[in-house]
Amino acid sequence: MALRKIRVDGDEILRKVCKPVDKMTPRLKTLIEDMFDTMYETNGVGLAAPQVGILKRIVVIDVEDGNAYCLINPKIVLEEGEQEGNEGCLSLPGLVGTVKRPNHVVCQALDINMNEIVVEGEGLLARAICHELDHLDGILYKDKALDGIHSVDEDIKK
Questions:
Q1: Which residues contact 53 (CB under 8 A, 6 or more apart)?
Q2: Domain ranges of the chain
Q3: pTM attached to this predicted model
Q4: Strands 116-122 and 149-151
């Protein structure tokens, strides 16, 4: 296991659409382990494969709800409600912005063993799923920020 370099805003890979995963390989399992390590080391709650330079439809999420999720080829099949809140991103360090997201989502995906799973989330988990899945389509949260983005320091002063 190793830490991966996180790509930052301006890197063209963050704006590309990722390709589906057809089969699990030892290399992809290592990637997923590295993604979890990188996410935990940087105090993130989610990380998408393009953020570490890999154009595959893979995300990892851990919002400290007792579960850590690896979602392969994820797709949101249900969105309900609405929430508005600050988001940050490991690819936009030190910045935050207010984004409107669904408050409840149901996501179909494959797990690391390529078994079908359904992840249902509310609040922060719903937000994290939406945020990370956006990365797979080349979308950054700043594209959806209601009032633009600003430094975390500015947010603390408010």
A1: 4, 5, 7, 13
A2: 12-157
A3: 0.94
A4: unpaired
Quick: pLDDT tens for 98-152.
999 999 999 999 999 999 999 999 999 999 999 999 999 999 999 999 988 989 8
CA distance 142 to 88: 9
Structure tokens at 105: 């989502």
Which residue numbers are catalytic?
A: 132
pLDDT higher than threshold 70 for residue 69: yes
Contact 62, 87 (CB under 8 A): no
Residue 68 identity (one-letter amino acid): A
User: Which homologous superfamily does the CATH classification assign to the domain defined by 12-157?
Assistant: Peptide deformylase (3.90.45.10)
Q: Tell me the C-alpha distance between 16 and 38, whole Å.
A: 21
End-to-end CA distance of the chain: 40
